[in-house]
């Protein structure tokens, strides 16, 4: 990590969906030689660059080999890199805002003139779709892992549960808390957690992680509640949920005509949904692949649900890696 520090790019005043940021900041890391083909790999919900969230696919011999590619990982606005500010008054942020900012870092700061591939998991995959939509002559390929081009009505509805749990917490105080609102964040994590894995994962008691956690409650408290309390700001969590719920590539082109928007995407695509994903169901990817000009669909056959795409299970990482390496060959 010391060789690839998280860097901050200051955009100055930056217009976003909900207003203007007085000094927008994009966090990023780079890996490999800048003369190699560029891979862009943005973060998902709950991911932070300084915690190594992208490393399950970045490194020698991995899907994005640092000996073959110049990899740029980007943090979403509101992921806490840099630390949050303006509390509940932070303006709404869209995927389009994030991609405009990332494009500026690549072209104005890093000197990138062409992106070989944009790849992402979950919200990262939605960013990949937006990249291919917004910059059709700049992006050659994209990979969407456990993701979709548009956040489905069911996906939006599921997110209302953890959102309501967070905002109803007695220590959330309408977003004006002065200390970490642990009660609110723990409620959020419990409401969110049950959707992250397939039902079979629970039935087979895989939450024990080979004996690391004695009970399901222990796993929830330590691996989920603890992670969000230790590393996340509650207002940031809400702001990112809003970005997620806004996701729709046709909102930035084709006036909301989803079919026309996908048919116009020129970049070659690889869609990698998981069979048991309860967030981004594989049926959405199966529909999208029929609309894209040049796309491949490969379903991750796993009980790990949405988490299968984010590095939680080594066997799924191996499958994803093989598919991406073949796609990039």
Q: Low-confidence stretches at least 5 residues in length (pLDDT < 50)? A: none
Q: How many E-type strands? A: 8
Number of helices: 10
How much beta, percentage-wise? 15-25%
Instruction: Determine the mean pLDDT.
Output: 97
Helices and strands, in order, run as: EEEEHEHEHHHHHHEHEH
Shape: globular
What is the terminal separation in angstroms?
27 Å
Structural class, from secondary structure content? alpha/beta
Gyration radius, in Å: 19 Å
**Share of helix among residues?**
25-40%
- Biggest β-sheet: count, sense, barrel? 8 strands, mixed
Output the strand order for the largest sheet: 1-2-4-3-5-6-7-8
Question: Can you put this structure into words, describing what you see?
Answer:
The chain has 329 residues and is of the alpha/beta class. The chain contains 10 helices and 8 strands. Strands 1-2-4-3-5-6-7-8 form an 8-stranded mixed beta sheet, with helices on both faces. α9 links the parallel β7 and β8 (295-297). It is globular and about 50 Å long. The mean pLDDT is 97.
